[in-house]
Batch of 3 targets.
Target 1
Amino acid sequence: MCGIAGFTSLHGAAPDAEEVVRRMTRPLTPRGPDGEGFHLGEGIAMGSRRLSIIDLLGGGQPMASSDGRYKIVYNGEVYNYLELRADLERRECVLRTHSDTEVILQQYARDGVNALKEFNGMFAFAIWDRDERRLFLARDRMGIKPLYYCLRGGELIFASELKALLEHPRVDRRLNLLSVSKYFTYGYIPAPDTIFEDIHKLEPGSYLVFDRDGLQRTTYWDIPLDDNPLSERNADEWAEDLLVILRDSVAKHMRSDVPVGVFLSGGVDSSVVTALAAQESPSPLHSFSVGFDQPSYDESVYAKRVASVFGTKHHEEIVTLGQAADIFSRVMQLLDEPLADASVVPTYVLSKLAAQHVKVVLGGDGGDELFAGYPAFQAHKVVQKLSFLPISWRDFLGRLVRHLPVSHRYTSIEFLMQQFLKGLGLSPEIRFMLWMGFYGIAEKKRLFSTDLQHRLLRDDAFEDISRHIRRSGLKGDFQRLLYLCMKLYLPDDILTKVDRASMAHSLEVRVPYLDRDVVDYACRIQPDYKLKGLTTKHVLKRAASALLPSDIINRRKAGFMMPVATWLIHMKDTIEELCSAAAIRDTGLFDPAFVRQILDEHFQQRRDHRKHLYPLLCFMAWHREYAS
């Protein structure tokens, strides 16, 4: 695991290239505290910060091919590197190290872009071809590892994090106003856009080729969902083989020259990974969980139950209200783009806890996207069942919600109904993403200043939904929703959150559910075996029944979420400072009167505005750090 950065100079030598590339890699030090390396050649400058996991002594970067033609900087892990290494040796390739870095480099030297088909893992890498004066950038299928780039002055600049790109003198901080609009819709900014106009994310499953002829972008892999995955297999048969594939994935993900632990929330996804990892580990496994001092959000009792069943060395930390403001401020400094997923706070605490004991952990992310685990899937089915009702029923529900008592519990009826009503009357795909997101269309109009609304008049914040639906070719609503979860929410929210929070503590998080073979298999399973009635993740729970106690499998889903509504009240002083009328006016983006209204209503507990205030708070914290 590493942090990488670099830039080309095909159209003229950069006299300060070494100073610039060193400056770019400096913010990436937490991603790679174990060493650094640089390559400066004609047309290229590359740098790497290394977190040593595989081949601790021999895997240094940048790494050169034996003939010196190719140089690589690489962030990630390729879990099938041993099998690929054996194949390369059969092809009479002599490898000088035991690292997966050299396997990637040699595979590319022999097969070019076709090498990407062979890699099973998480990765973002850059390979410089000295002879062709060509730079090749690639990102893994699911977008587990990040890669940013910017084309300026005819040269390509790249880095693992946006903050590293900002260290290059040609990269500016011009705000992308459409990205601001998208952020308040989703809570994140979908790739390929970023918060800045001229900086882009390389999309999952894609690669770039840059040379004197310019930049070419190509998709090499896509989510293999079909509208009608027909099969004569029943749920038990699917579940039996799913468990075999998951077991193999966990075994590969535990390949490491340093100790491996697990994140354990007590939910089905992380509990399955813990069970399989405990069976694979030759010694007791370290497990880690975070709890809250508010019962409706606290899952720690379930995590302890699973840890007890599988004999792990369990470590737990309880996060209190008193820690909220301090942790929030530290976490916001990590995020070089606004991100409104509040679970980044407990993920940060969890990663800090784990890093005190291990260097690598396995996580349960991806299970909800592959197997329809989110409540929004249930809500979608409910709306389908109620489609016969007249439009007037929405107005009645809206009036009803306004009279419900305000509660800050995780399962607050008032809050859930507000979210449910937000997307009614829109297409299933937009409705679903609004349920998963923050501001609805009308709410965003009230938030944005008149000037910003005018400048966004012809822009479409839902363009990414339309683009992905067209690309997928899918016709059915349910499969489209799964596809959108895997193309938008998973890489740009969940995986981004985990990457930043864990890398802040030099901790590598691996995700067995996003193994190539697991994803391919899960995408072939019929939708009815994922959401059966209103039971989410049905086939995964059937598979889990061979491993886990029934009370863990069948308990209500809580999600890895902190008590945002209550924390916001406790953080009143911080919020009043960041969201003061002067600060809001200075951005030129928001209506100070609307912001004051939602602040007062929430602080006085007349309305639950967690979905309005938290993204605004995160944006204002980011704006003060990066844009002001």
Note: Residues 254 and 281 are 8 Å apart (CA to CA).
Target 2
Amino acid sequence: MSSCCTPAESNSVVLTAPPQPALHKGQIRTIALIGPPNCGKSTLFNRLTGLRQKVGNYPGVTVEHHSGRMKAIGRSDLTLIDLPGIYSLATFSEDARVAVDVLKGQMPGVPAPDAVLLVLDSTHMNRQLMLAAPILALGLPTLVILNMSDVLQSRGGKVDVLAMARELGHPVALISAAKGVGLDRIADFLSQYGNFEVTRPGAVKLPVIQSADSYRNWATQVSSRTRYQQPNAPKWTRRLDHVLLHRVWGPLIFLAVVIAVFQVVFGVGQPLSDGLGNMLTGLGVKVAALLPDGWMRALLRDGLWNGVQSVLVFLPQILLLFAFIGILEDSGYLARAALIADRVMRSIGLNGKAFIPLLSAYACAVPAIMATRTIENKRDRFATILVAPFMTCSARLPVYTLIIAAFVPDRKLLGSLVGLRATVMLSLYALGFLAALFTARVLKSSLLKASSAPFILELPQYRWPTLQGLGIRLYDRAKLFLRKAGTIILGVTFAVWVLSVLPVHTGQFSALTDSVIGHIGHWVEPVIRPLGFNWKIGIGLLSSIVAREVIVGTLGTLYGVDPETHALGLQQALRGDMTLGGALALVVFFAFALQCTSTIIMVRRETNSWRWPAIQFTYMTVFAYTAALLTNQIVNLIAR
């Protein structure tokens, strides 16, 4: 373990850390983990705490602090706080503010750290060291961790760790978080500062904070004096980037990858969903047969089971989609896609960093909106927040899949390469993306006009995704989906069933059209009839404001209660109850509407005002209604 040494002489300006009291045994209780994006910090956090945290290959994944006990190295008495990945402590972005507030002990509800673990990517030390200067200037006991030692050594790179420790005036450890090598150095550091009386470092030669240039010059000098040699990038990496980042071939390859993903999601996922649906239907029949005929059987079979089952059948397709996203992300390809997208982002006035939140919005708009904290310019950030819900999140997938499977024939296009259903699905995703670009352009040329800012992105190394990493990600996604099905969707379907049988007359349930929910549906039907929707769809739209996918469970319950459609599957029931124009209008409406209470609450939180979510909800609803109206009218004209 390298010890603290006096820095070597240089032309740097000496900054003396403020006097600090001696540390005594047992004083260290909280440790901050910080580093630039994509340095392997989250991997190390998982190693030290045993927690499953999403590991991303692009900036903006971690936008809030996460904490855990350091059980993996036998220090369950210590709390590790994982801070956002940042390039500097300049508080231009929200994630940098989080890091600064925690490090200075100014974050409400978070204890001030007693020590710091500074993680740097050892394969890019010339740039990564720029963060070391402001961190070390805080005067906290700091272990500088040079991560990815396996990559550094295998590709011919090297660094003198002892010389680095002398230069920085702090201990330095060379580790590989991915391989679990060198973690004992972290335990030694914590033991040294926890079991012995030591003083914080005194004078450390660091650059005066005048510009970014001063940090860069200092980092270059330190790298040179520590005999740092950057590893060579493999030839195949350069060759891949030459193709994947090409101005013409790059976007075309990305489009081909996206088409292939959706083809597999439908080609493989649909049979899996059908099989799961048949299994759940058979299970429901067997359970219902064990119950006496009456309201209990009606509740469980027609209400709860039909509603929740209608949503659960889409789990295979959702998991397939996330498996592909995980592969593309863990391999390092999505970071290249962000670089390609920067050209498109700039054409509409947004920074290339907006691509990261917009991309993560394909999973869910809530974390996507949180990820906008990496965008320094406030107007750019607000514009990205307002357009993020246009991106097709996973909650829309059950609605799209249901309607497409029910109304779009399973035909092949372009020979046997691409299916019609996959093409329609891709078109819906493209619709949401184009709507986001159009809205961003309008906002950036009017309400949120601002000058453009530079886009800085550290391209990660290409890596083979691990089965363990993908497995954990799919497990977490499935658990989240099932939790929502078992809480929100279950609760809404129960409420829908109750309202569909009330009031009770002489011991008999009301007919569906005479029930409370029937009256509500017929009350809203005149507003949605021009879109090709009936009153049942209207009830589904109202319930989906809670969460988009709830509409599938609601429709499953309503058509299950209706005697005319009780014996039919939901797809069959919809085919007999909707026109093609109405069906396409429904998916178009969902492509544009803001049907998600969680997103509305998150926008309110991030903008600190109800004004912006109100504007957003109104605009997206009007946009969705108009687009659905035009879709229904045009399809009906063509069908005549």
Note: Residues 1-26, 55-62, 195-203 have pLDDT under 50 and may be disordered.
Target 3
Amino acid sequence: MGVTDLDDGIFIHTFKDYNEDLRNLATSFVRSVYGGASDPFYRPVPMDIGMLIYQFSNHGQNMAIFHIASVMYHLISVVLLYNLFKKLQIKELHVFILCLVFAVHPAISQAVAWIPAMNETVLAIFSFSFFICSINYADTGKIKHLALSALFLLLAFFTKETAVFDAPVAFVMIVFVLQKNWLGKQNLTLYSLWVICFFVWYIARLFALGKTASLPSHVFNDMAHRLPLIVQYIGKILLPFNLSVFPSQEDTVYYYGFIGIAIIAASVFFYKQSNLRLVFSGLGIFLLFMLPVLMIPRIITEQTYEHRIYLPMIGILMILPQTTLFQNKLREKQLLMWCIAVAGLLAIINFRHQKSFTDPLSFWTNAVETSPHSSYANMMLAARTGDEEQSKQLFLTAYALNPKERYLNYIYGVMLQNKDSILASEKYFLAEKNNTGYYGCDFYLARVAMQKNDLKTAITYLEDFLKKEPQSPLANNNLLMLYIDTGQPEKAKARIKQLQQSGIHVPTEALKELGM
């Protein structure tokens, strides 16, 4: 597997300079992910993990290393989940079956196959470790378990902001599943420690981002819009037959979810000895882990990625031992064989689904097939298909769906320039700048200006572009030659000094022209 051209290229190739310098292992804790003032993401641990993997991957050239690491993290989380379920007093055979299903489940294959989703498996490792250590402390009162609980909670916080729901989930496990006294001395100590860990993370985040983690005003409207996702995700957990690499709420059917809910409800009802306390505890854990998914602002993304099911799934798995699916007349060996057969079917679906993550063309082909109403998916496939007529039709579809789709005008403009339709591309780059202000348009608008022989405007565009991307060799060399052609030798010499200091090659003809 390689990259999909959905964020993975950014973290590996665009962040190349950042990943090269191991001193940035500390820097990750004092900056946002993308480094922008408006960037709300603070995830230093995944950034550092990605940086370390980058060092072992021949500086981002060997993508297999990233995928091996991702599989390894998933296997570690499966082992930890096994230990966690045993701590929650689930029967050992049932624990084995549940973890086997979790290990091969196709609905969470995106968390393993898609490099940016590695956040989920890393978060699961720290979250499961936190739950285990918190339970150990509630059982024994030993300080080492308390200290480890704090360490893993902090690591979870610094992995992804959704870890704020880890403490409520731990409370459900300790108080409702294991029935510990919620006002017991050891539990009160745990609560205090959880609050301290939260404020340590919150202050670090505030220092790094320079702003508080406030909820946007439209969060409740977005949550109301996303509530049906609960049904869709339950369907993908119990009947994973409508998976997508780039799922959208609009294009995901609900009937699998309703069938899945009916199956769970009926199997709980017909098992007369169901422990409803455990059933509702599992449901509560599922919903708590679903909350951050529902709270994602629609302005950030409309996609309903399947890797987000990774943690919520454990709540549904906890319910299954209280149903006739597990509690029936089958002997243990028979139950095990049936469950292995189901796991085998899931593994086959998983294997087939993972093929869509092999390369950008496979990825975006699946995205368009499964989310046809996504303007972004149509645009991305249009830029990658080798069929000119198909590409044109996909772009027309993307425009019809959303003419202001981010980067749509930019990518189409680039395609036109690649076909030497330079002047025709201008209106698309100007439209992109008007819609999103994307600085990449300036590089291509400079080429349009040069085609018009408007060298002064071309210089302005390149200067603006280099303010955002100062290491671009082509843009620097183009600007240097324009300075020479327009009779600005002092600016040209100053540019050459900057290029030499940055280690960027300076054309020999430019040096000769300036007598340097």
Note: The CA atoms of residues 69 and 485 lie 51 Å apart.
